[in-house]
Design brief:
It catalyses: N(2)-acetyl-L-citrulline + H2O = L-citrulline + acetate. By secondary structure, this protein is of the alpha+beta class. It is about 30% helix and about 25% strand.
Length: about 350
């Protein structure tokens, strides 16, 4: 008879073999849905939301907690020493695309269900890496009712109760085109206007450096993509910068936007918001989530920088924490892996939560 860890690795091998890279998010062609449907002990309820977004709900009995695991991954990228879609076991680690983020958690839950778990609710989603979270937003529209939600991400099997939010946007500038030999280029060039704005925005972001929660300090602000202009001898008539910031719980997004002057009085500049999501906890009530971690018998993690969809559940009024095997430092990079010892530990912890 196979050991529990061997069963877990069997599921992880099958899940890793499904190329659920996002983009391009070809979930239906990946074999993922076929694999889940092939498991005789499952009765998955699958909801096709379009464009590769699927919600797959596994439910039995009257569970108190909902587990959420996203099954999409980032693209493989270069630098892999093994086939990203073939699970490899080396040095007591399981290597494969998504093994750490976060198919290892899904394999643990499937293992427990295969062994006869009678009372559970598991939501697999497939668009977390896209930065749109359509799956979770649509699921929340069904008004789920649970005492709490455990969102799986690599946390070294610690209970995370606090992380930054996320806000992205585009600041666009317009200028007056012409030959660069004209001195008016100093004022009329859209790239020059963008450069001045970027410098001022970076200085404004540093004004929040004195605000902190645990190890999280200040405002995480980033200029991500700059576009504009044609060639050196033409005054640029348009330019734009895509930027993002990660506010701490309790920091006002409106105050931050005002500080970096997105709503410039300059009519030749305009701002378009992008992806917006709250911090965790969305209401700032850390004590409730810390009590949930204590009730579940988990070890408490310090606040983390990375964003998770737990904040969307929190915003909807459901107590939500983040928990899962793996280290976030091993995710989103070649040779992604999860320690076998962490998978074994997660199996016991997941079982304890359900029971």
């Amino acid at each position: 008879m196979k050991s529990e860890l061997e069963l877990c690795l069997k599921h992880l091998k099958a899940l890793v073999a499904c190329d659920t890279s996002n983009p391009p998010k070809q979930i239906q062609a990946s074999g993922l849905l076929d694999y889940l449907n092939s498991l005789s002990y499952l009765s998955p309820s699958m909801t096709d939301l379009g464009d590769g977004s699927f919600n797959i709900l596994l439910k039995k009995g009257d569970p108190q907690y909902l587990f959420n695991v996203h099954l999409d991954t980032v693209p493989a990228g270069d630098g892999w020493q093994t086939d990203p879609w073939t699970l490899a076991i080396k040095n007591d680690q399981a290597l494969g695309l998504g093994a750490c983020d976060i198919k290892g958690a899904a394999a643990c839950l499937l293992t427990l269900i295969e062994q006869g778990l009678e009372n559970y609710a598991v939501l697999f989603s497939t668009d977390e890496e896209a930065g749109q979270s359509r799956c979770i937003k649509e699921f929340l529209n069904t008004q789920p009712n649970y005492a709490g939600v455990i969102v799986s991400e690599p946390t070294n099997n610690l209970g995370v109760t606090c992380h930054r939010g996320i806000y992205t946007g585009t600041q666009a500038f317009s200028g007056i085109s012409g030959h660069s030999s004209d001195h008016r280029a100093m004022q009329d060039n859209a790239i020059h206007k963008l450069t001045h704005w970027c410098h001022a925005a970076l200085e404004s972001a540093m004004l929040f450096d004195d605000e902190m929660i645990g190890p999280l300090k200040g405002l995480a602000f980033n200029l991500g993509l700059i576009e504009g202009g044609v060639k050196p001898n033409i005054i640029a008539d348009s330019a734009s910068v895509k930027f993002g910031f990660r506010p701490l719980p309790g920091q006002s997004v409106e105050t931050i936007l005002e500080a970096i002057n997105t709503q410039s009085i300059d009519k030749e500049s305009c701002f378009t918001p992008g992806f917006v999501a709250p911090s965790l906890p969305a209401n700032g009530d850390l004590k409730t989530l810390e009590l949930m971690v204590q009730t579940l018998g988990l070890d408490l993690s310090e606040p983390v920088n990375f964003w998770t969809e737990a904040s969307l559940f929190s915003q909807a009024g459901l107590p939500a924490i983040v928990f899962g095997p793996g280290d976030i430092g091993h995710a989103h990079q070649p040779n992604e892996h999860v320690d076998l010892s962490q998978l074994s530990q997660a199996l016991n912890i997941y079982r304890g939560i359900v029971q």
